[in-house]
Amino acid sequence: MHRSIALALSCLLATACATEPTSDDRPQVGDAAGQSAPEQATPSENRTASAVRVLERGGDFGFSLRDSAVADQVRARCEARGASQVEACIEEMIASAAGEGIAFSPAGDGLTRFVSYAQEEGERVILIEALVRFEDLGDGLVEIRGERLLKGPKLPLDTRLLIDVVDEDTIAMDKQPGAHPRSGGARLVFHRSAE
After folding, report:
1. 143 and 137 in contact (C-beta within 8 Å)?
2. Spatial CA neighbour of 189 closest among 74, 36, 45, 62
3. Which of 31, 60, 150, 173 minimizes the number of CB atoms within 10 Å of its CB?
4. Which of 8, 3, 2 shows the shortest CA–CA distance to 188?
């Protein structure tokens, strides 16, 4: 089957956040009629709050396959299954990705709790949990710096994770650690879930 976006994201985030031992691709996908995917989210010119404040405020951001640059890879995988199954395959991938995302919540002492999650058998499963700090790089870009890994795989410490805060309700990152989230290729888009 396919490798979960949440699993790939969890590895990316573990790379960015792993500071202690733990205790324990797709191109644009259109709709079912094969139309082109919606335009990807781009930075807002009129930001109402600093990018760091948006993340520190907390919230749950669900992954949007339809808005992500990696959607074309899904289409290619589905096409490899056979033309008669392409649209059903794409819809299956979109439904599977709908239960994946990341969440932020205040943790005190200037730290924020970061969680990467997926859905398995209808239950939310935490893949990565870490305490992080943010550095505002300007123009809506934020670098995540891991302070303490609470759950997840231990990976190299020197990787940067950049978040593009598009607006109060939309963030994006590149699938590759350290890559600029506006560079194109593997942009993953997340929308704030209703609270």
Report:
1. yes
2. 62
3. 31
4. 8
